[in-house]
Design goal:
Blueprint (H helix, E strand, L loop, with lengths): L6 E9 L6 H17 L2 E10 L12 H11 L6 E3 L2 H4 L6 H16 L37 H17 L26 E9 H6 L8 H11 L1 E4 L6 H5 L3 H5 L4 E3 L13 H10 L4 H4 L2 H10 L8
Parallel strand pairs: 1-2, 1-4, 2-3, 4-5, 5-6
Pfam families: CTP_transf_like (PF01467)
Subcellular location: Cell projection, Axon; Cytoplasmic vesicle membrane; Golgi apparatus membrane
Cofactor: Mg(2+)
Length: 306
């Protein structure tokens, strides 16, 4: 497949990130590597979306700390960004609503048409310019189509102003999403999708009766699709068979192949918090040094209540 015929993907990970661990970053890297190896996808970006403070999880530190730790964890990455939108809302947002927000935002910022995972576009995906100004890449015969590098670069110029730029650590601000972004870029024959990236523990939660609204699961798995990175040797095949929605949309679930002995597979925020509370030196195996420094400086997780 040529670059333009491959599906361009943005990986979105939702969660507490309390704190963000090396395992979270590893999940992004392994997912991108796996998707590229299939020959069908090009991962052009990753988004970390920390949960709102009103989620109510015991020991959840304020979002200003969690956002900062996430920023520190990805400061050397050229493709993973932190998005504060979810934290800035008036209340807790469902995973479904976060996915839909980013889908709608990407439509406005990129001019691309985002197709559902289970109903791929049968025609070239062409973004519509927002005004009458001549569109870039309008002449197929004389101007080359955008490469993935150009696509992500151009997207970042506008997208970064809204939610993916790394803001000042002391204050998180972003441009109003309804602001005038100028002429939208026109990307020809590029299919763009947002996929939910998660660990197998989230997949297992889909099987807990009453925890998820079935309508939300239909949208998450049926319309968007998910990329699962197994943890602790979880049998994802068995998990999927326990849910009618997961079985129905099995083709939309991409399971990443990872080394079962990879130490990152057992890293968790819970273990990290316990290590911090007990002064366990193994915390360096769980968290990157800038995050550890910030935790110590801010005196986070020094007791069982967070």
């Amino acid at each position: 497949m040529t670059e333009n015929t491959k599906t361009h993907v943005i990986l979105l990970s939702c969660g507490s990130f309390n704190p963000i661990t090396k395992g979270h970053i590893h999940m992004f890297e392994k997912a991108r590597e796996h998707l590229h190896k299939t020959g069908r996808f090009i991962v052009i970006g990753g988004i970390i979306s920390p949960v709102h403070d009103s989620y109510g999880k015991p020991g959840l530190v304020p979002s200003r700390h969690r956002l900062t730790m996430c920023q520190l964890a990805v400061q050397s990455s050229d493709w993973i960004r932190v998005d504060p939108w979810e934290c800035y809302q008036g209340t807790w947002q469902t995973t479904c609503s976060v996915l839909e927000h980013h889908r709608d935002l990407m439509k406005r910022v990129t001019g691309c048409i985002l197709s559902n995972v289970n109903t791929p576009s049968t025609t070239p995906v062409i973004g519509q310019p927002q005004n009458q100004t001549s569109a870039i890449y309008q002449n197929r015969n004389t101007v080359s189509k955008p490469t993935v590098v150009k696509l992500w670069g151009k997207m970042s110029e506008s997208f970064g102003k809204i939610c993916c730029a790394r803001p000042n650590m002391d204050r998180f601000t972003f441009v109003d999403e309804n602001a005038n972004l100028g002429t939208a870029m026109r990307y020809e024959e590029i299919e763009l999708r947002i996929l939910l990236l998660c660990g197998s523990d989230l997949l297992e939660s889909f099987c807990i009766p009453g925890l998820w609204k079935e309508s939300d699961m239909e949208v998450i798995v049926g319309d968007f699709g998910i990329v699962v990175v197994p943890r602790d040797g979880t049998d994802t095949e068995r998990t999927m068979n326990h849910s009618s929605v997961l079985r129905k949309h099995k083709d939309n679930i991409i399971v990443v192949k990872d080394d079962i002995n990879n130490p990152m597979a057992i890293v968790s925020s819970t273990k990290s918090r316990l290590a911090l509370q007990h002064g366990d030196g193994h915390v360096v195996d769980y968290l990157c040094q800038p995050v550890i420094d910030y935790v110590l400086q801010s005196q986070l997780y020094i007791n069982a209540s967070g």
